[in-house]
Recover the amino acids of this structure.
């Protein structure tokens, strides 16, 4: 009887240890899946609220596409362990309703978020528009004389060229508030021309959105040294 009890006791201890080990391992797996990789990125969906941005050949509102690309990219980056902060999370603009100049109020709010976040990279997402309806392709912009921003902008541009055959070989200098407002490494991506009916249609397709944001994410992984998706 005593011997039997001892055996049960040993078995019980064995199972408890097994249980504890499995809990510990699960914990490790869960923790590593969401492990912060040390990089913080601000994603900025251009326009919002009363500022719709450009209007496409068939009525696409720029601010809506900007947000949808931004949220998709965020998901991919968070999955890979990046800390991501958004300037705007929904359709609303960031301006104060009391502000006389809503555009300035909106841009200041974006700058405040960037400053508070202290990011390794800022990416602003926009859609392009031009009087010539045949203009097409993605363009990545960086602040003049900023080598770090130029470097990441060129990696993104190369990845986008690979994916959608953009005709601009290299990233371009851009004079945009979001690039000039801080000294953080910052790029602005004009994903394509919604003034071009064909490109507008592509930019609206779920499949294109997935592949496009994959191409940006891949470039970011390369820039920060993580080479697999
Ligand atoms: Zn825009």
């Amino acid at each position: 009887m005593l011997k039997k009890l001892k055996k049960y006791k040993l078995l019980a201890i064995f199972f408890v240890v097994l249980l504890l080990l499995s809990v510990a391992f699960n914990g490790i797996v869960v923790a590593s899946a969401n492990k912060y990789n040390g990089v913080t990125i601000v994603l900025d969906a251009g326009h919002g609220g009363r500022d719709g941005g450009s209007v496409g050949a068939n009525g696409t509102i720029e601010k809506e596409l900007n947000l949808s690309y931004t949220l998709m990219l965020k998901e991919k980056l968070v999955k890979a362990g990046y800390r991501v902060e958004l300037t705007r999370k929904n359709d609303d603009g960031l301006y104060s309703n009391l502000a006389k100049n809503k555009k300035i109020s909106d841009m200041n709010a974006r700058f405040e978020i960037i400053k508070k976040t202290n990011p390794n990279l800022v990416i602003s997402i926009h859609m392009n528009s031009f009087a010539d309806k045949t203009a097409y392709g993605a363009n990545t912009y960086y602040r003049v004389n900023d080598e770090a921003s130029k470097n990441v902008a060129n990696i993104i541009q190369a990845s986008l060229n690979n994916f959608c055959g953009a005709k601009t070989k290299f990233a371009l200098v851009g004079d945009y508030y979001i690039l000039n407002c801080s000294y953080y490494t910052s790029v602005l991506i004009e994903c394509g021309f919604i003034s071009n009916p064909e490109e507008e249609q592509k930019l609206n397709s779920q499949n294109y959105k997935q592949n496009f944001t994959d191409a940006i994410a891949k470039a970011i992984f390369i820039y920060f040294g993580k080479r697999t998706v």
Observations:
- The chain is about 50% helix and 15% strand.
